[in-house]
Amino acid sequence: DLYRKVFVFRKDPSDAYVVLRAKLEQPLQNFTVCLRSYTELIRPYSLFSYATKAQDNEILLFKPKPAEYRFYVGGKFVTFRVPEGRGGWEHVCASWESATGIAEFWLNGKPWPRKGLQRGYTVGAEAAILLGQEQDAFGGSFDVYNSFSGELADVYLWDVGLSPNKMRAAYQSLRLPPAILAWNSLSYEVKGDVVVKPWLQE
Fold it and tell me: Considering only CA atoms, which of 25, 30, 26 is closest in space to residue 119?
């Protein structure tokens, strides 16, 4: 249980990462991923990387520059332009549904205009899920200049698209539905220079 704790990725650039273990029974037709990040990086970095043997960017949350997020599903991406952070924690949620191909992006509890992405696609279940690196091959092949350094917390993955109320609840750290990956019952393994520390923010 990582309640009120964070992963600190200490080095920049870094070869460190955290492997997350999820219980996925079947491929995903819908999903929502949420997490909080705190960093001073202005170069590109990966926040959440979910790769299958068939597709290294099966699900990817990537920040190429301070005022932009990229959300990948099945190797294709949409871009969400955001205000440059004021140096605080950023909470992001991204959700996707296969039937409509609608991609949603929420930043700090607010929705951005929805976009179309990979309608009819199915996300594979046999996945390597990593924090802190972007996979260019299943479970590896990292570019250190896409690595994350800073603090990560409140990582969740659901096999449904969350409702707007639940998106806001995730931002406010309120009670959430059961998840495939949940911060308060996370199965993980640290690889390299990552430390679990208490949350410093109020």
Answer: 30
